[in-house]
Design a protein that fits this description.
single chain
């Protein structure tokens, strides 16, 4: 269970720390799963194996489960707000805040 904080405390948080931590946890969970399944090797960097390439084509279901788990206990509207805030921050810093095509 995560604690509740006053809005002004949450608003003062460094976005880079939180977005970086979310990135590391999501990518780490996916990477660990792919290596454990024999779909990826880390011998010379990250490389998909033959079975990994076949699995990549079936990965949508797995990614959907991770996405669902990641969003447990949150209102979908909150996620939309979060993504839109991150998009605005990226655009404010000169990046492309548009969604990928």
């Amino acid at each position: 269970m995560i604690k509740d904080y006053r809005d002004e405390v949450v608003a003062a948080q460094p976005i880079g720390a939180w977005s970086g931590e979310a990135y590391r946890l999501v990518v780490g969970a996916l990477r660990e799963d792919l290596v454990a399944r024999g779909w990826m090797t880390e011998a010379d960097g990250l490389t998909l194996t033959e079975s990994g390439e076949a699995g990549r084509l079936r990965a949508r279901d797995r990614n959907a489960r991770v996405h669902e788990r990641m969003h447990e206990g949150e209102d979908p509207a909150d996620f939309v707000t979060t993504i839109n805030v991150l998009r605005r921050m990226v655009a404010n810093l000169g990046g492309d805040g548009n969604l990928p095509d």
